[in-house]
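Here comes just one.
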Amino acid sequence: MDTVKPMARPHQTLQKFMHLALGWICVGLGIIGAVLPVMPTTVFLILAAFFFTKGSPRIRHWLISHPTLGPPIQNWEDTGSIAPRVKLLALSMMGFTLGAAIVFAAPIKILVIQALCMSAAALYILTRPNA
């Protein structure tokens, strides 16, 4: 006897599509972040894995199983840890970005906001366990 799969409700289909689209956007931003020193990579990949949980478990599995992209996501999901090399890279890029803003004479108001935001992010990164 044939079993008929119930059709997905329209809002479920839209929700799945949105999770899938947001996941791919985050993967794209993560890859851009791997090339550009001023954008993060791991944060976007962790977000992509989150979105793919509901959008496409198959793509999520591919992402977390990827030999290059997967380990930072798995470290974060398993223990909330960040590899020391990644911490150093993140802090270096923050310092480089703030230094560039100073060199290019950004307004003091912008420099203060940037320094405060980066300090908070750096503190968060430094307080995570090492992978």
In short: Residues 1-79 form one domain. The radius of gyration is 19 Å. Residues 10-35 form the longest helix (26 residues).
